[in-house]
From TrEMBL:
Organism annotation: Gordonia insulae
Name assigned to this protein: DUF4328 domain-containing protein
Highest rank taxon of the organism: Bacteria
The keyword Transmembrane appears for this protein: yes
The keyword Signal is assigned to this record: no
InterPro entries (UniProt xref): DUF4328
Keywords: Membrane, Transmembrane, Transmembrane helix
Domain called DUF4328: residue spans: 76-220
Amino acid sequence: MGPRPIPRYVYIPQWGLRDVPDEVSADPRSRAEVLLAALVSGLRSLAVVLGLAALVHLARYVLIVVNKSMPVPAWTDWTSSVLVMFVGLLALGAYVYVFVVFTRWIIDLRAETYRSRDRRDPRPRWQIAVLAAVPLLNVAGAALLLHEVARLRDDLDPDRTRRRFTRIWVAWTIVNVLALVAIATRVVAMFSGSIQTAANGLAAVIISSICSAVFAWWLADRLAAVFGAAHAEPVPSRRWVTVG
């Protein structure tokens, strides 16, 4: 039996080996870890915005102090007023973003933690959202929600975590008190018509903005340290070998 003829095709066969490109591997991080990274980035952006707001309010404060002894050009007063409103809206947007991400992170963190224990989160999502997102209430509410998570995490040292949480909530309380004082002072200044009262209101806002900026940056580092992925122990670049 002789050799068979080589088959010929009028089209390119689709059977046989195919060169399938490797699929791009998915992000190995969990949803809570992705949201934590977004929260850390958002807190640092908020710190920058609040620092900018403090500088703008400081410039406005200087203009008011100068205006007590000599008149300032109308355009400088108008420009400073516009900048104050602009950075105020910018800070408000940053606050809203951080609170939204913070709330979503806590919800997913709790869900993953309870799931690892083959349990469901006993708190409904709406309750977690209220405790984590409502200003002033979240000072105590977020503490409660995260303490419940920490008690279920075997990878967290209880004493060290409790100390870190205590520092966070004390600092958060101080920042909220300063913010309330600044808001109250600004409201009084709006209706007083006094240049000195307006200057006092701006001074309170400056102090509150600076403290809030420092706290936001510090909080980003604290949350990353407590709930971030564990880092491997550093390996020394130089090894000493005993020679017999």
